[in-house]
Amino acid sequence: MEKPNDERPPLFKKWSYWYLLVLVFLVVLILLFTLFTKRFA
Amino acid sequence: MSQLDWIVLVITLLAIIVYGLSKSRTPRNLDGYFLSNRSLPWGIVLLSIMSTQASAVTFISAPGQAYTEGMGFVQYYFGIPLATVVICIFFVPIFRKLKVYTAYEYLEGRFDGKTRTLTAFLFLLQRGLSTGISVFAPSIILSSLLDWNIYWTNLFMGGLLIIYTMTGGAKAVAHTQKLQLIIIFTGMFLAAYMVVKMLPENVGFTDALEVSGKLGKLNVISSGITDGKIDWSGRYNLLSGLIGGFFLVLSYFGTDQSQVGRYLTAKSDRESKMGLIMNAFVKVPMQFLILLVGAMVFTFYQFNKAPVFFNEKQVEKIQQSPLKDSFNLANTRYAELAVQKQSAVTNFTNALDTKDEKEIAIRTSELKALDKQSDSLRAKVKSWINSKEVGGDGNDTNYIFLRFVLDYLPAGLVGLLIAIIFLASWGSIAAAINSLASATMIDFHKRFSKTQQSCEDEYRLSKKYTLIWGVFCIVVAMFTYNIGNSLIEAVNILGSLFYGVILGVFLVAFFFKNIKNGNAVFWGAVLAELLVLVVFILTKLETPVLKMGFLWLNPIGALGVIFFTLLLNPLVKKTGAKAPVLNS
Q: What is the DSSP letter of B574?
């Protein structure tokens, strides 16, 4: 049996915050890469 | 290679084997052998996931791709964060709750035995062959560059890791992957540092970026939409990366046992999810940096003479063919152009210092014109090597980075980078043969065997299956020849032929709760696989009927299964679903 504690994510109250952070991170990366491409390519 | 390189190489490889063996003590049962007793923390799960995904070709091919085509390849990885979220929400909780050993085990409870067998079979077929390529890919490159015998290289590349993988199972695999990744990152960081350091004194990192950028190597993002139309044939763009890459990664992390087996080794749901989430944060920037090393190597070769073709074995071939005179002329012209380019690139970087836009524009067009001429000469040489008269392999993408390493990096570092090729290979191959053995044992042997076996017998048999799959992959490697194109792509294309369909079966299982008809899913998957193969063949004809990048095969396969299953569900005879499999 999984302990109920196992389900609690580190740092945040809910896993959905982690998922949101992952998606925001992807958007930021794409924006940064776009700027990088525009600057150098 | 110098004596020092050999010492570094041998010591690094021996250290990994000894370390793997020292971590080999596991409970003598299936849980211990295949899932490390589900006891690992997320940090090791993360490194294991990363090491499984990053094979030797990741470190050899990616810099070469940046050198030849630019950095657009990074978009292929954009699907990882998206897919990770879906896997953490839907896949991880179900797999862990049911305490399955393999992903396919779940399908028997959800649909029927034959659907489980079909997906497990597609996995074994795809993973077995691609692991063979993963052994062959670095072996052929090392054997060409260092004049090693290809059969012995294959044997060392695919054979030595079997010692600790067979002895210690998933635990030894995960712990060695941790050490391997640390060594790999150290070596790649040193190589990147050396490339920049070896540029002329007045050329800084930003100048180096300006050079490769102006020559089209820093095109990280392309939208995939040209003149308002979607570019379906573009291999790497934002759309194919986000959509096609999403389906490929969802299938890879959600249904490929070589990855599922990694996060099932975690001690809890939380540790599995954190391992996957951290991978989503790290993987894209890591791949960007590896590609950037390739772009820096490209800049380095603007200041130094690059070979017209990086695979010397193929150059020897053309030298012995009727095209040798044409080649020698092209080679001489290429060398002349290299001298002109060295002067042009120096003028360009000097112009950057003046910040005079007009001067920069003049120097840029001068440099671009020379680069275009060099490119067209290289293209000519490649076509000659590909021609019937020579009968060679005109793709040298995989040789670019290692050629640079051998020609320019100092003794010791060369040995370390060659060791990295072995370690990166071992990391992914070890995880693959561990997962091939687990699918064989759990989804075939245990399912079809009529005799009841003790834990000890199952443990011993699992070790034998590990050995058998290890040998199988080496045999595939021995027979693999001339895959052409980039080897990293060959593996991905092979994956795309099967992944979409396997994913489609799981998508039906997770999201179409009303569909319990195993027959409909099974035949839906068979039809979708046929559709994927037909589409792939149509794109590969001499005059292609369809123009489409291979990443699109993944959504076609996945959506194909859903479509055919929904279509067949009311038409075919129903098979009853059993209760979900629960392992104690």
A: P
pTM here is 0.86
Q: Write the pLDDT tens digit of every residue in B231-249.
A: 776 677 888 888 888 888 8
Question: B229-230 and B225-226: which strand pairing?
Answer: antiparallel
**3-state secondary structure labels for all residues of B453-493:** CCHHHHHHHHHHHHHHHHHHHHHHHHHCCCCCCCHHHHHHH
Q: What is the DSSP letter of B376?
A: H
Residues B513, B558 contacting (CB under 8 angstroms): no
Q: Which residues on chain A place their C-beta less than 8 Å from a C-beta of chain B?
A: 2-3, 6-10, 15, 18-19, 22-23, 25-26, 29-30, 33-34, 36-37, 39-41
The band of B513, judged by pLDDT with boundaries at 50, 70 and 90, is confident
| E strand map for B214-292 | 225-226, 229-230
Give the pLDDT mean for B391-413: 88
User: Above 90 in pLDDT, residue B86?
Assistant: yes
Tell me how far CA of residue B441 lies from CA of A30, B120, B214, B215, B457, in angstroms: 42, 11, 54, 52, 12
Type of residue numbered B194: M
Q: How confident is the model at residue B477 (pLDDT cuts 50, 70, 90)?
A: confident
Q: Which residue of A lies nearest to B82 if distances are taken between CA atoms? A: A23
Cross-chain residue pair A7–B269, CB shorter than 8 Å: yes
pLDDT at B486: 55
Nearest residue in A to B206, CA atom: A40
* Site of tokens 């590896």: B290
* E strands, B496-561, in order: none
Question: Rounded to 10 degrees, what is the CA torsion of B261, B266, B267, B269?
Answer: -90
Helices B150-197 & B413-439, crossing angle to 10 degrees?
Answer: 130
B88/B29 Cα distance (integer angstroms): 27
Give the whole-number percent of chain B exceeding pLDDT 90: 42
Burial classification of residue B69, based on how many CB atoms lie within 10 Å of its CB (0-12 exposed, 13-18 middle, 19 or more buried):
middle
Q: What is the DSSP string of B42-94?
A: HHHHHHHHHHHH--HHHHHHHHHHHHHH-GGGGGGGGHHHHHHHHIIIIIHHH
**Nearest residue to A23 via CA among B89, B516, B70, B547:** B89
Q: Which residues of B touch A8 (CB under 8 A)?
A: 270
pLDDT at A2 over 50: no
Q: Which two tokens stand for residue B208?
A: 């180096």
Which amino acid, one-letter code, is at A40? F
* pLDDT for residue B487: 63
Q: Quote the CA–CA distance of B408 and B196 in Å, as a whole number.
A: 12
How is residue B481 annotated by DSSP? -
ipTM of the complex: 0.90
DSSP state of B577: -
CA gyration radius for chain B? 25
Flag whether residue B4 sits within 8 Å of chain A, measured between CB atoms.
no
The partner residue sitting opposite A10, judged by closest CB among B220, B274, B281, is B274
DSSP label of B199: S
Nearest residue, CB atoms, B220 vs list A7, A18, A37: A37
